[in-house]
Amino acid sequence: MSSRQDRAHLVRVAALFGGALILFFVARAVLVPKDFGIYGHYRAGALADARARPIAYAGQAACVECHGDVGDLRKTSSHAHVACESCHGPLATHASGDDATRPGRPNGRTTCMRCHLASLSKPAKFPQIVLKDHADDGPCIACHQPHAPKL
Amino acid sequence: MNESTRREFLFQTGKLLVLSGAASIAWDAVAAGAPADAPNYTMTEHWWAMVIDVEKCIGCGNCVRACKAENNVPLEPYYFRTWVERYVVDPEDIEHPIVDSPNGAYDGFPELTLSNPNVKTFFVPKLCNHCANSPCVQVCPVGATFDSPDGVVLVDKERCLGCRYCVQACPYGCRYIDPRTNTVDKCTLCYHRITKGLLPACVEVCPTAARQLGDLKNPNDPIHAFLRTHKVQVLKPQMATGSKTYYNGLDGSVR
């Protein structure tokens, strides 16, 4: 019933459709990363990217490996659970053996005050200092040993 | 069609189904157990969560400074992966708390001056809640933000377009556009540290242990006992985000 001439337009549309389909799959193969979709709708390599970042804080365990004496001093003090790097700053490069980066010596007043300056917002049982009732303007470490602060 | 052909067809189809199923299961096992750079870390064995004890936070800002140092977060303009808020609440009007967070508490807090002494005031640390059903993951059009198999919401900086859909979708305001790359950035729960057995930087330096990392898949983790014995709450539970940042002692005024 349908002549060859009648079918010709269908062939052209089919060819166009086929071409577009091929183009789509080629573009998809080029644009979608190879490891996309292994775990979910994302690139699996992004997990390795997130892990690859170098660390800045060495962690408490690394500090006391060498500085065990200070670790022992702190063990029974009220600062037992304050990590070294809380006051001394990030020291991963120092811990990995680079002697050029030395731990910062915290300022004996402002570092203390960040935690211990009295404030209504702080939990009532946290030890707080009302400066004008406490001492003169000298550094806190003149009286308190920071690793075992109780006098 | 004769009988033997049909039997043969059913047999072949069944074989194909079983084999392809087995192959996909095998591939999942291979894929999950092979992180290239952390040989002792198996993602499927962990499900990370965070505990924030509001009753212990002293607002010192150690976490904010450590986070910026660890993750190279721009100092200015004032973007944060974690920050601390100070709440001042009239106990009879908890729907209108006064909240401030100067520089995200990077330099601590200035002295509080109260016109009305009859208030309650406390600090609330904030960070990405690492939701199990994250709105930010659902809206990303290119699969650049995702839930990792160990329960951490991460960003693929190579795929991020900077379209900002996720910044708007996050109900907790935990995302920002990094002006240096024009891609989104957020807390990774220090993924580069926890996969090496270290604590996130903010947890490491918190002097009062107001922040605790927990592994919900580890039956020996103290987080289980903590969640069992404390009255904990997640932020905006009505959003059904599946938040894994549990707050102890959270006041009803906190948004």
Describe the structure.
The complex is a heterodimer of chains A (151) and B (255). Chain A is built from eight helices and no strands. By secondary structure, chain A is mostly helical. Chain A has two domains: 48 residues; 83 residues, no CATH class. In chain A, helix 3 packs across helix 4. The longest helix of chain A has 28 residues. Chain B is α+β, with helices and mostly antiparallel strands and 255 residues long. Chain B has one domain: 2-Layer Sandwich (Alpha-Beta Plaits). Helix content of chain B is 26%, strand content 19%. Chain B contains seven helices and eleven strands. The longest helix of chain B is centred in the first third of the chain and has 30 residues. The chains are: A mainly alpha (151), B alpha+beta (255).
What kind of assembly state do the chains in view correspond to? Answer: heterodimer
Low-confidence stretches of chain B: 29-36
Largest sheet of chain B: 4 strands, mixed
What letter string, H or E per element, gives the SSE order of chain A? HHHHHHHH
Helix content of chain A: 40-55%
Radius of gyration over C-alpha positions of chain B, nearest whole angstrom: 23 Å
What are the defining features of this structure?
heterodimer; A: 151 residues; mainly alpha; 2 domains; elongated; B: 255 residues; alpha+beta; Alpha-Beta Plaits; 4-stranded mixed beta sheet; 3-stranded antiparallel beta sheet; 7 helices; 11 strands
Write the layout of secondary structure elements.
The complex is a heterodimer of chains A (151) and B (255).
Chain A: H1 4-31, H2 45-51, H3 60-66, H4 68-75, H5 84-88, H6 92-95, H7 110-116, H8 131-134
Chain B: H1 3-32, E1 48-53, H2 62-71, E2 82-89, E3 98-100, E4 120-127, H3 135-139, E5 145-147, E6 153-155, H4 165-169, E7 176-178, E8 183-185, H5 191-194, H6 201-205, E9 211-215, H7 223-229, E10 232-233, E11 245-248
Parallel strand pairs in B: 1-11
Antiparallel strand pairs in B: 1-9, 2-3, 2-4, 5-6, 7-8, 10-11
